[in-house]
Every structure is written in C-alpha cells, then in structure tokens.
Amino acid sequence: MINTETKLIALLGYPLEHSFSTQMHNENFKKLGMNYYYLPIEVKSEGLADVLTGIKRMNFVGLNITKPDKVVVMDLLDEIDTLASKIGSVNTVKIINGKLIGYNTDGEGFVRSLELDKKIDCSKNTFFILGAGGACRAIAMTLASRNAEKIYIANRTFASAEILSKEINEKVNDCCEPLELNSEKAIQCLNNSAILINTTSLGMLPDIDSCAIDLNLLRKELIVADIVYNPVKTKLLSAAEEKGCIIHTGIGMFVNQGAKAFEIWTGIDAPVNEMKAIVEKIIVERKQVIR
Ligand code: ATR
Fold first, then answer.
1. Which of 201, 207, 253, 257 to mutate to test the pocket of ligand 1 (most atoms within 8 A of CB)?
2. Of 19, 34, 1, which is closest to residue 274 (Cα–Cα)?
3. Rounded to the nearest 5°, which phi and psi values hold at 34?
4. Catalytic one among 70, 86, 233, 276?
C-alpha cells in the first residue's frame, strides 16, 4: 500500500507510454515486499529543472532518466559517478538528503548481461560494435573500463567513430579502433572479432527488416548481441541463429540496467532472474513481436 513511508522512484522522459521499466520495477518491489513505488512522469526538457526541484522536496529516493534528457540532466545534478562522467550521460540518480547523484547503468547493464548470461570475460575478447551513438558510447566505455582486448567501432559516419574511439583511448583504455561500416577493413576486423554488438536502432519496430551489416559476413563462431529488444529476435539475431552463432538479445541489457539501478537505489542485490522473468511476461502480455 502506498503511504507516507513509501520510497518513490521517478522515471523522467518524454514520451513514456512504451516504457517496460514501470511494470518491471513495480512488480519486482511488490514480489520483494518492499515499500517502493516507481512512478513514470512525462516531462519535456524545458520542464526538467522544475520537476527536479520538486522531487528533491518529496519522498523520492531515486530516478531513471530516459530519452531525450540523459545528457542535459547532468548539469542539474550535485555529483556524478566517474564512469557516468566519462560516458557523458546519466540514466540513474540516487537521492540522498536532497542531493542528486548521477550514474549510468546502460553500459554496465549490457556488459554485466554478457558476463552473467554468456560467461564472457571482457579482458580476453575482441568486440566489434555497429554504431557510434549514445548507446555505443556507454557500452564501449564500459567494455574499455573492463580492459577489453580490442574494440572496433564501425559506423556509417566514420568521423563519429573516430572521435569516440580517440576519446575512449585517451580517457579509459587504449583499445579502440574506428572503422567505416562495411568497408574492406571492417570486414577483415570482423573476422578477427569474437563478439558482434549492434548498438544502432536498425531492426527495431517498425523497421524490423533493416540491419546495419551485410548478413553474409556472419560466421558461426561469432557471438552476436543486439541492444534492440523490440522485437526480441531482430533480423540480425535471426540470421545469426540460422548461421549457428550464439545470440544475445536486448532483454539482457534492459534487465541488467534496471537491476544495477535497483542496487543503486536500495543497496541490496537485485533478483536479476526474477526481473528477467517479469520482462519476458510483459513482452508476451503486450504481444510484442517475438521472432
Ligand atoms: P542512440 O542514443 O540510441 O545510440 P544515436 O545516438 O542517434 O542513438 O545513434 C544512432 C547510431 O545508429 C549512429 O551510430 C548512427 O550512425 P551515424 O552516426 O552515421 O548517424 C547509426 N545509424 C542510424 N541509422 C543508420 C542506418 N540507416 N545505417 C547505418 N547506421 C545507422
């Protein structure tokens, strides 16, 4: 029951109607018997500062920030965790005595899901990332901070891959190399990689027939991961599965970014498998396309 003791957590962003986080966190808190409530609040960028001022005065203990304000929110926080500062965006905030402390759990969520589900030791592997946008930044920075052996960043716009690689090499660990998507060199580097990760939105509903890479380049020894979880099995993952590759769906990142946020807010270990089961149930309930 919600009462004055209830610890509130807000999801801030716009629009929020398709969010899975609200149901995932509230069902999880309920199962654990914790007096927390996760509340979606649609707010446009121009209203963010006002909403945060109000939130600090209420019984909120944390926040999730989603698109489009993961970067602009940084100017409104009191402290920012080191990795989140390097990534340059915040998706999770802990509120302690009216102070807002920012974290980024997106990269950690992805990397943790690979480590837990696929038993991957990042320090012994070469990664090939498609895309060089915000999601790639979070994932590549986190992989680099885990001492990844090598990270190729292949992007349609080479300059963005180049800028990001340089930044990671300077700030975190000298392991990134930029590539032009689908170039001869990129094809060679893919052949030397163990794990392919799509961080572009290609393949996401309604654009389900698109993919950033020539699917003929897949080979069965690759582990293929996608951050898109709607549909769960993207065109890339279906093709990879047909080739005999191990595949890693976007549910892994989604659940683990939420699990890491839960730990930041509550200070206790997240029941990751139970949270994953809740998300799988939501996907069926909402009749998401599972291919
Ligand atoms: P996000 O924050 O979700 O990562 P983003 O920052 O807009 O989103 O990044 C989107 C990424 O997908 C970019 O790397 C983009 O490539 P460009 O830098 O060339 O724009 C990539 N992307 C988007 N549409 C693409 C397409 N049709 N083909 C190849 N890459 C595409």
1. 201
2. 34
3. -100, 135
4. 70
Q: Whose CA is nearest to atom 8 of ligand 1?
A: 133
Specify whether 233 is catalytic: no
CB atoms within 10 A of CB 209: 9
What CA–CA distances, in Å, run from 268 to 32, 55, 83, 264?
11, 23, 21, 8
Q: How far, in Å, from the CA of 5 to the mean position of ligand 1?
A: 43
Cα of 29 to ligand 1 centre, how many Å? Answer: 35
Which has the higher per-residue pLDDT, 265 or 205?
265
Q: Is 103 helix (H, G, I), strand (E, B) or coil?
A: strand
Give 100's contacts (C-beta < 8 A, 6+ positions apart).
Answer: 52, 56, 63, 76, 77, 78, 79, 93, 94
Distance between CA atoms of residues 138 and 155, nearest Å? 15
Distance between Cα 180 and ligand 1 center (Å): 13
Q: Which residue has the tokens 């949270």?
A: 275
Q: How far is the CA of 135 from the centre of ligand 1 (A)?
A: 9
Report the C-alpha gap between 186 and 73 in whole angstroms: 35
Residues 101 and 88: beta-carbon distance below 8 Å: no
pTM for the model: 0.94
8-67 confidence digits (pLDDT tens): 999 999 999 888 999 999 999 999 999 999 999 999 999 999 999 999 999 999 999 998
**C-alpha distances in angstroms, 214 versus 187, 190, 191?**
10, 11, 13
Ligand 1 pocket residues where CB is under 6 Å: 131-136, 155-157, 160, 199-202, 212
